[in-house]
Design a protein that fits this description.
Blueprint: E1 2-7, H1 18-27, E2 30-36, H2 40-52, E3 56-60, H3 72-82, E4 87-96, H4 104-121, E5 125-130, H5 133-142, E6 150-152, H6 159-167, E7 171-174, H7 185-192, E8 198-200, H8 222-233, H9 237-251
Parallel strand pairs: 1-2, 2-3, 3-4, 4-5, 5-6, 6-7, 7-8
The structure holds nickel (II) ion.
């Protein structure tokens, strides 16, 4: 049984097909999904999905791309949404210096403030970090986010960065890029990271694994990530599936 810890099933690219996409996921053994919000609209949509499907949970937060839009209304609403019983995390939040759609100082401030929301509500955080490894780690340290813990989603850093993440008690989530033929850094990270600190995800509709690279991603494909981790770590697929699912349930405090 598989836990896709990072999906965006409410994305427009799934419009009108949600039920089929979810049915395919269940057929492939996906038994838990966190649908991740990244602004108020998608936080609300994630909660609506979680209300409709037992095995789907939601997270709420503001993506660094949109940090510039964090107004007073946002801060009021995020608290309300985060109190929903099926919201299991604050995210995705963090820093994106690659696209830099919001000024870096604004991204940092909004990231810090959302970590404080997570700590107020005792929820773990889902971190998006692109080309901002050192600032992300500094803020996680300075805000003492280890108190609530969390995950670095779609991890793309080096083993040196991964080691710092692990020392902070955070999980590393692995997505489709680990299956790519030219994958190097993430393969090394998977090799060296204990299975007890790994999560798996699709980030669908993005980051589609081999052999469907280039097409739309969906939760059913998270099995390709689990298969690749099993191959890299020379353990069974079943062990990867079971342990990464337990890890996710521990992090997101899901008790079934
Ligand atoms: Ni995402």
């Amino acid at each position: 049984m598989l836990f896709d810890t990072h999906a965006h099933i409410d994305d427009n690219r799934f419009a009108g097909e949600t039920d089929q996409v979810i049915a395919r996921a269940q057929k492939e053994g996906v038994s838990l999904i966190v649908n991740v919000g990244y602004d108020l609209l998608h936080a609300g949509q994630s909660i609506a999905l979680a209300e409709k499907y037992d095995f789907i949970y939601a997270s709420v937060g503001l993506h660094p791309h949109d940090a510039k839009d964090a107004d007073e209304k946002f801060w009021q609403e995020i608290y309300k949404l985060a109190n929903h019983p099926k919201v299991v995390a604050i995210g995705e939040i963090g820093l994106d210096y690659y696209y830099e759609n919001s000024p870096r100082d604004v991204q940092r401030e909004v990231f810090r403030r959302q970590i404080r929301v997570a700590k107020d509500l005792n929820l773990p955080i889902i971190i998006h970090n692109r080309d901002a490894h050192q600032d992300t780690l500094s803020i996680v340290r300075e805000e003492n986010a280890s108190l609530v813990g969390g995950v670095f989603h779609a991890f793309s850093g080096s083993w040196e960065t991964a080691r710092e993440v692990l020392n902070l008690g955070f999980y590393i989530s692995v997505g489709g890029p680990v299956t790519f033929k030219n994958a190097r850094k993430i393969v090394e990270v998977v090799e060296k990271t204990p299975l007890s600190s790994l999560l798996i995800e699709t980030d669908c509709p993005y980051l589609t694994p081999h052999p469907y690279r280039g097409q739309r991603n969906e939760p059913a494909y998270v099995r390709f990530v689990a298969e690749k981790i099993a191959e890299i770590k020379k353990i069974s697929y079943e062990e990867v599936a079971a342990v990464t699912k337990e890890n996710g349930m521990r992090l997101f405090k899901i008790n079934l």
